[in-house]
Design a protein that fits this description.
With 276 residues, the chain is α+β, with helices and mostly antiparallel strands. The protein is built from 6 helices and 14 strands. Helix content is 24%, strand content 28%.
């Protein structure tokens, strides 16, 4: 278990690397780092960023796509989801599902297409998946720009938790308000939906909602369960947004590219984002 002073030092080290756009060795290269240590650093990160004037607006659930687990982790593959807080400074909403995004200051950026939920009710501690779905106000498609301060995207699970869950920014498309009937059908509909991800005219990747822990709604439920055993963090609450994990592997991006996505099996528009 990390001392609070060490967790605070690690948090400042990661924030400095982000601000100065510098790669640093994984924190785990300094000695063993447990998953609990990673969340202790994340807790310090919340305190620091809040003190600096940022506002926590939700959570990111990461590594929910089982197909990409074997690609990450040095000593052993990552085999379970993680989560990290999201702040207002890194979330933006598009107009007409199109946007322009600067990659200035983004370390080793990649793109991941995700589904975002916004809660309009605070879930009960023992909420079932169906009851959790009843707490959702809207869902939206989003591109998450993930970044990595560790060379060559090599890290352990605890490193990724500490390093903002590798979150860089979240570009959210047009929200779709959900009716009571739509909320009830989410668990059944989302696993069968598919998504394609293209750069220019070239298809780069594709995936299904079922790749995300069986369904993005399951990713939300997993987060809710995990928070019950993490009393150092606030529980899910009304007003939060939760991004539930990439439907495809995350793809490297660079300025000058335009990326588009398209859904099948669900009435949700795709996104078109150009990078500069």
């Amino acid at each position: 278990m990390l001392m609070s002073t060490q967790a605070n030092r690690y948090a400042h080290q990661l924030l400095d690397a982000r601000a100065q756009v510098q790669l640093i060795p994984p924190l785990s290269s300094n000695g063993p780092l447990t998953v609990a240590d990673g969340y202790d650093i994340a807790r310090s990160m919340i305190d620091i960023r809040t003190a600096q004037g940022e506002t926590m607006v939700g959570r990111k659930v990461g590594f929910t796509n089982r197909k990409i687990w074997p690609k990450y982790g040095v000593s052993e593959p990552i085999r379970t989801p993680i989560w990290t807080p999201i702040f207002d400074e890194t979330v933006r909403y598009t107009e007409d599902n199109r946007g322009l995004q600067s990659l200035e200051g983004a370390l080793q950026p990649r793109i991941g297409p995700e589904l975002v939920f916004k809660l309009n009710q605070t879930p009960a501690p023992d909420a079932s998946i169906e009851q959790l779905a009843e707490c959702i106000e809207w869902m939206a498609h989003a591109f998450e720009i993930v970044i990595c301060p560790f060379p060559d995207w090599k890290f352990e699970m605890a490193d990724s938790i500490a390093a903002f869950g590798l979150h860089g920014s979240l570009i959210v498309g047009e929200p779709k308000m959900l009716s009571a009937a739509s909320r009830r059908s989410l668990a059944e509909v989302l696993p069968h939906a598919s998504l394609s991800l293209s750069c220019g005219d070239e298809l780069r990747s594709a995936g299904f909602g079922s790749d995300v822990l069986g369904s993005p709604i399951h990713a939300l439920w997993h987060l809710h369960q995990l928070l019950k055993v993490q009393p150092q963090f606030p529980q899910l609450a009304a007003g939060e947004i939760v991004t539930t994990g990439t439907w495809t592997d995350v793809c490297p991006i660079k300025p000058g590219e335009t990326w588009t996505s398209a859904f099948s099996g669900i009435s949700l528009p795709g996104l078109t984002i150009s990078f500069v």
